[in-house]
Q: What sequence folds into this?
């Protein structure tokens, strides 16, 4: 079902983000099917069923690290005689370290290998993350609500495990049922592998899960895996698309909305 069909009354009361025209459905996404979902979740007594699980991206979604990743890439680029511009955004933000290392290698013509650049990027980024980890607005409140409702959660990141562990050490490991880092699947985002692996570890059908992302790369990964997708853009815009719900903040997300999105995807 098109994500643009969810009526405004089914969204939280906060003002919608202006991600596009009213015709595109930006900021008012979802499904009328979801709005009519009234089946009680087993034993909860609630008028809506929660999602089977919520699968979270990390950088830019739960923690404000995308600007740190950009800084890390810009500093390594400068060492190679490059200045990153808006043209480089798609090759940096939301991308795995290896992808950005390849981009810098091709753009600079450096004699350093892509593997060497990946190590430099990883070291630089990890140092910045260790010094500055800030949760995104609404992130901890949403995680707490999911924990209280006993909804399984997964952290699904394209960052290396050492960066994921740094963030978990600050954010808290107990929020998540399972965690995946870049090394945990053969392919990372935008391939569907990370989200398929997360659903598999939870023993769930991806169609019953809601993925929460902040970049087009992550949205593409979750969408390809078959998840309902909730996108809260951080540094780069995300285009309106079927089965992708756009909001301006996690502060506007609650269990009812997540349940409706999962129900709509399963139809």
A:
């Amino acid at each position: 079902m098109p994500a643009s069909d969810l009526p405004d009354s089914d969204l939280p009361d906060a003002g919608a983000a202006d991600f596009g025209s009213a015709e595109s459905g930006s900021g008012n996404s979802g499904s009328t099917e979801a709005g009519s979902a009234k089946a009680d979740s087993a034993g909860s007594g609630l008028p809506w069923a929660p999602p089977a699980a919520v699968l979270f991206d990390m950088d830019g979604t739960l923690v404000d690290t995308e600007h740190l990743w950009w800084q890390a890439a810009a500093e390594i680029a400068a060492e190679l005689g490059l200045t990153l511009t808006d043209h480089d955004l798609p090759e940096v933000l939301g991308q795995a370290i290896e992808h950005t290392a390849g981009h810098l290698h091709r753009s600079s013509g450096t004699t350093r290998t892509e593997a060497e650049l990946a190590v430099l990027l990883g070291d630089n980024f990890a140092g910045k993350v260790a010094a500055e980890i800030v949760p995104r607005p609404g992130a901890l409140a949403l995680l707490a609500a999911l924990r209280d409702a006993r909804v399984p959660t997964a952290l699904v990141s394209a960052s290396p495990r050492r960066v994921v562990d740094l963030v978990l050490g600050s954010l808290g490991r107990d929020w998540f049922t399972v965690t995946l880092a870049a090394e945990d699947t053969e392919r990372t985002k935008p391939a569907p592998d990370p989200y398929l692996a997360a659903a598999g570890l939870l023993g769930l059908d991806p169609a019953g899960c809601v993925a929460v992302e902040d970049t087009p790369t992550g949205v593409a990964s979750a969408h390809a895996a078959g998840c309902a997708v909730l996108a809260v853009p951080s540094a780069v815009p995300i285009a309106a698309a079927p089965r992708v719900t756009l909001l301006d903040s996690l502060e506007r997300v609650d269990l009812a909305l997540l349940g409706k999105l999962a129900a709509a995807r399963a139809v």
Q: What stands out?
A: The two ends are 8 Å apart (CA to CA).
